[in-house]
Structure formats: structure tokens, C-alpha cells
Design brief:
Blueprint lengths: L2 H9 L18 E5 L2 E4 L4 E4 L2 H4 L8 H13 L11 H13 L6 E5 L2 H18 L7 E5 L8 H5 L4 H4 L10 E3 L22 H10 L3 E6 L3 E2 L5 E2 L2 H13 L3 E5 L23 E4 L11 E5 L1 H5 L21 H16 L2 H19 L6 E7 L2 E6 L15 H11 L2 E2 L6 E4 L7 H20 L1
Parallel strand pairs: 3-15, 5-6, 5-7, 7-10, 10-11
Antiparallel strand pairs: 1-2, 2-3, 4-12, 8-9, 11-12, 13-14, 14-16
Helix pairs in contact: 3-11, 4-11, 12-14, 13-14
Bound molecules: 4'-deoxy-4'-aminopyridoxal-5'-phosphate.
């Protein structure tokens, strides 16, 4: 252990970690980053195959974004956002409204993904309080959903690992059986099915719509659940059902927005507009915490009145609309436009698929390869035929992660799912390295 690692463990409590794990696997202290690589203080380099928790789009230490930060810093670092505004936020809002699905015309700023989800839930609830449907106080989310870690966001999480222990302090929400395409109960295939599994959502909404303010969903890909991809027909049906029963559709595009799924926003796969949309992560290309919640004129109007009506949405965070964050977001959008990112990603995602199919699919423990745009994953199984999964206590993914780090790739699997969500600047050679190391690490794990 080097001296920085010793000090780190003396003082720091890391996220999403059992700190005891660090006894024989101390945190890797990163000194600098460039492109898809991170370099530690001991001179090792790691390919960041997970975009540092799905945030990085254009590589570490990107020249254009560095410059945008420097020039914004010369002007204004931060200003209170109530009664005050600034050009970077105004420009960003205009551009975001112009590019997100139709009808999302108002932008509300938050600091991180979870806080945008909190704002979305509060907004939806308050809307119905102010429009006379007072019984609409609950939310629904599908199995394996993940929407962040703050208390409200955890209430709409259905991954026990993160939320179970907190149940007594969480909101009472409806958990609806959602799509599970790899282990489809209808023996169908996500590419050709009619989202038959939607029947569970239909039942819940039909029966409980009077109590339900909104359904929150990760469009197309359930990230934390292990990059579970489902049919866009599910979203189409959800849009219609929400319209029929006056339920808000809240699209959590925090992980899938900004081109991850091949479209700028994942809702585009289904051609739907949600009532509320949450964005973060890629919004600032992996540089700074910033999030947005977008909503419709109709919802906005339910809050617009004399101050004394007490209808305002009083949600606020100290760093709301941070100008440096907004300047980075604007430059992120410039890069998308100038560098034809989505077009180039189409070629990269095809290459990624070819390589993954060539190098991973024949392994006896690889149950499925799934991909949507720049998100790809393989699910490891005990038995290919039955799709039986490994006992979580074996920590298969975690052990493969540790092996892959020795070979210079940061994979960080989710349970038994090894996924690839690299920065868009990744080259074909680097994709090859990433997938080859994944295969080598899977082999090593199963051989020992
Ligand atoms: N929603 C989704 C779909 C996410 O993937 C995440 C983060 N992984 C969040 C919400 C929470 O975002 P944050 O970590 O910025 O709070």
C-alpha cells in the first residue's frame, strides 16, 4: 500500500463499498486521465470501460471542455439562481428544450441525478395536489428499477441491495413486474415481441390510478439492474396508459440520455414524450455535477399563480444552475454537433458488437450478449441452457473486475453482468483491448 492509499483509508469512506474490502484491495489513486485512460500514481494505466460511472462522454481531460471551463471561470463561477440568472443557463435551457422530445418546454435545474429525481417526484405530487386530484400521492416503478440513492429516489428503486434496509423510512410505492427479456416468462424475444409483459403495468394502473401520480422508468435500458434492455413497445404502451388514466410518465434518462443508446435520448426509440424527464451524467460529459428536470407547459401552469396562492415549486439547491456546469454542458452539446458524435458512434457500436460476439459469446458461462448503441453487456450464467445465475455471494463480477484491473481495464461489473459503456472517443483498437481483456479475465476467473 502506498502512503496515499494509507491516508485515504484513514480518512475516506468510499461510496458503494464495503470498506473492509479495501484491506487487501486498496483504492487505486489516480493521478491523471487522458482520453479513455486513467493513470495511477504508480504509473499503471487503466482503460475506463465504464466512463467513470457512466458520466464521461469525450474522454478524460478533454481539451475543448477544459477550455470552456477556463473561459467561464474568468467570468463567473457561481451566482444565486433565485431572481438571478446567467447566459450559460439560458443558452443551455433553450438548446435542451429544442432537442428533447416535444412538449418538454420548461427546465428546472438540480445538482445530480438523484436530486433531479427527487424534484420530479415532488413536482408530480404537487401538480395533482394543485389540480384537485388529492388522492394521487403515490408512484409506481418496475422491478429492478434504479433512480438514485436519496430517500425519495430510493423509494422508487426496486433493487433490494440498495433499498431493502431503508424500507421503513421510504415512501410507499407500487412495485410492478417489468420486462425481463433474458429470462422472458412469455418465451418471447425483445426484438419481435409486443411487450406482452406490459399486462402487469396495465393491471396496476387500471386498479390504482386514483392513487398514482406518476410512473417512473429508465427508458430502454435498466442500467443498475445489469443493463437490462427491453422493447420500445413497452414505452409506447406506457405512454398511452398514462394518458388514459392521467398518470405522469417520468422518464429517468440520467444514464441513457446524451447518445448512450444510439439516439440522443432513449425515449426517441419509442417516439414518445414523457411528462417529466430527468437528465444528468452525460450532460456535463463527466466533468461536473449538474442535472436537469424538464416538464410540460401543462404542469408548469398548475404552479403559476399569485405568490399568496402558495402554489410555487419551492424546491431548491445551493448550487442550482451552476454557471461552470452549464458552460460545460453547452460545450458538450457543441461537441455533439461539430464532431458528428452520434453518426460516429453507430460505426463504433457495430465494431463493439462484432468484437463482443467474436470474443465473448462462445464462452460456456456467457448467457447473453445484449446491446443498444454504446451500451453493451454480457450476462454470466452458471448454466447456458437453464440460464441459472451464480449465487451473489460468490461475487463473480467483483472477482473478474479485480482480475481485469491487473490487465489494465476498469470494467466494474454489476453482479454477474459485465458491461461496456466507454467514453465515445474510444478507438477500434481500444475497443479490441477492452473486450480482449474482458475475455481474458473471464477465462482466468473460471480457470482458477
Ligand atoms: N437514475 C439513474 C437511471 C441512474 O443510473 C443514476 C446513477 N447511476 C441515478 C438516477 C442517480 O444519479 P446520481 O448518482 O447522480 O445521483
Amino acid at each position: 500500500m502506498n502512503s496515499l492509499q494509507t491516508k485515504d483509508l484513514n480518512y475516506i469512506w468510499h461510496p458503494c463499498s464495503q470498506m473492509k474490502d479495501y484491506e487487501d484491495f486498496p483504492p487505486i489513486v489516480i493521478d491523471r486521465g487522458k482520453g479513455v485512460f486513467l493513470y495511477d500514481v504508480d504509473g499503471n494505466k487503466y482503460l475506463d470501460a465504464v466512463s467513470s460511472w457512466w458520466v464521461n462522454l469525450f474522454g478524460h481531460s478533454n481539451k475543448r471542455i477544459n477550455k470552456a471551463i477556463a473561459s467561464q471561470l474568468e467570468k463567473l463561477e457561481h451566482v444565486i439562481f433565485v431572481n438571478f440568472s446567467h447566459e450559460p443557463a439560458i443558452e443551455l435551457s433553450e438548446r435542451i428544450v429544442g432537442m428533447t422530445p416535444e412538449g418538454l418546454n420548461k427546465v428546472f435545474f438540480a445538482d445530480n441525478g438523484s436530486s433531479a429525481v427527487e424534484a420530479a417526484l415532488k413536482l408530480s405530487f404537487q401538480y395533482f395536489q394543485q389540480t384537485g386530484k388529492l388522492k394521487k400521492t403515490k408512484f409506481a416503478a418496475i422491478t429492478d428499477s434504479y433512480h438514485g440513492e436519496t430517500t425519495g429516489a430510493l423509494s422508487v428503486n426496486n433493487i433490494d441491495l440498495y433499498s431493502k434496509i431503508y424500507k421503513p423510512i421510504l415512501l410507499n410505492t407500487f412495485k410492478v413486474e417489468g420486462p425481463d427479456c433474458f429470462r422472458c416468462k412469455y418465451s418471447l424475444n425483445r426484438d419481435i415481441c409486443n411487450a406482452e409483459c406490459f399486462e402487469h403495468m396495465e393491471e396496476t394502473i387500471k386498479e390504482h390510478h386514483e392513487e398514482i401520480a406518476g410512473v417512473i422508468i429508465e427508458p430502454m435500458v435498466q442500467g443498475a439492474a445489469g443493463m437490462k434492455i427491453y422493447s420500445p413497445i413497452y414505452l409506447k404502451k406506457l405512454r398511452k396508459l398514462c394518458d388514459d388514466y392521467d398518470v405522469h410518465l417520468i422518464a429517468d434518462e440520467i444514464a441513457v440520455g446524451f447518445g448512450r443508446t444510439g439516439k440522443m435520448f432513449a425515449c426517441e426509440h419509442a417516439g414518445i414524450s414523457p411528462d417529466i424527464m430527468c437528465l444528468s451524467k452525460g450532460l456535463t460529459a463527466g466533468y461536473l455535477p449538474l442535472a436537469l428536470m424538464l416538464t410540460t407547459d401543462e404542469i408548469y401552469k398548475a404552479f403559476y399563480d399569485e405568490y399568496t396562492s402558495l402554489k410555487a415549486f419551492l424546491h431548491s439547491h445551493s448550487y442550482t444552475g451552476n454557471p461552470i456546469g452549464c458552460a460545460v454542458a453547452n460545450e458538450t452539446l457543441n461537441i455533439f454537433e461539430d464532431e458528428k458524435v452520434l453518426e460516429k458512434n453507430m460505426v463504433k457500436s457495430r465494431f463493439l458488437k462484432e468484437k463482443a460476439v467474436e470474443l465473448l459469446l462462445d464462452h460456456p458461462n456467457v448467457g447473453e450478449f445484449r446491446q443498444l448503441g454504446m451500451i453493451a453487456a454480457v450476462e454470466l450464467v452458471k448454466n447456458k441452457e437453464t440460464r441459472e445465475t451464480f449465487d451473489w455471494k460468490k461475487r463473480v463480477g467483483y472477482k473478474i473486475y479485480r482480475i481485469a484491473l491487473k490487465h489494465g481495464v476498469l470494467l466494474r461489473p454489476l453482479g454477474n453482468v459485465i458491461y461496456f459503456m466507454p467514453p465515445y472517443v474510444i478507438s477500434e483498437e481500444e475497443i479490441d483491448l477492452m473486450i480482449s481483456v474482458a475475455r481474458k479475465s473471464i477465462n482466468e476467473y473460471f480457470e482458477t
